[in-house]
Amino acid sequence: MIVCHCRVVTDRTVAGAVEAGARSLGAVCRSTGAGQDCGACVFSLKRLVCEHGGAPVPALSAPAHLEVDVAAS
Ligand code: FES
């Protein structure tokens, strides 16, 4: 199944990249070329990386200037 239509990258290619040592989303993108155009495939790529034993994707955090100091409020 094609995961990244822009670069025509399949789920098998992503799985192969993880098995070959690409353990993060960035590493998979660099090694396969996926996710580097429109970005529509990124969530599918993240899921595949996790399913095939890659590192969990770090949670996004708010920029420091947007964090709320609960103790001060
Ligand atoms: S579908 Fe993967 S970059 Fe566009």
In short, what is this structure?
With 73 residues, the chain is mainly alpha-helical. The chain has three helices and two strands, in the order ββααα.
Oligomer: single chain
Bound molecules: FE2/S2 (inorganic) cluster
Q: Can you give the helix content as a percent range? A: 25-40%
Radius of gyration: 15 Å
Rounded mean pLDDT is 83
CATH domain fold name: Arc Repressor Mutant, subunit A
What ranges have pLDDT less than 50 throughout 5 or more consecutive residues?
59-64
Overall tally of structural domains: 1
List SSEs in N-to-C order: EEHHH
Describe the structure.
The chain is mainly alpha-helical and 73 residues long. It has a single domain (2-57), classed as BFD-like [2Fe-2S]-binding domain (Arc Repressor Mutant, subunit A, Orthogonal Bundle). It is 37% helix and 7% strand. The protein is built from 3 helices and 2 strands; from the N terminus they run ββααα. The chain has helices at residues 11-19, 25-32, 42-51, and strands at 2-4, 9-10. The chain has a two-stranded antiparallel sheet with strand order 1-2. Strand 1 and strand 2 (9-10) form a beta hairpin. Helix 1 crosses helix 2. The longest helix has 10 residues, at 42-51. The radius of gyration is 15 Å and the shape is globular. The relative contact order is 0.20. Bound molecules: FE2/S2 (inorganic) cluster (FES). FE2/S2 (inorganic) cluster binds at residues 4-7, 34-41.
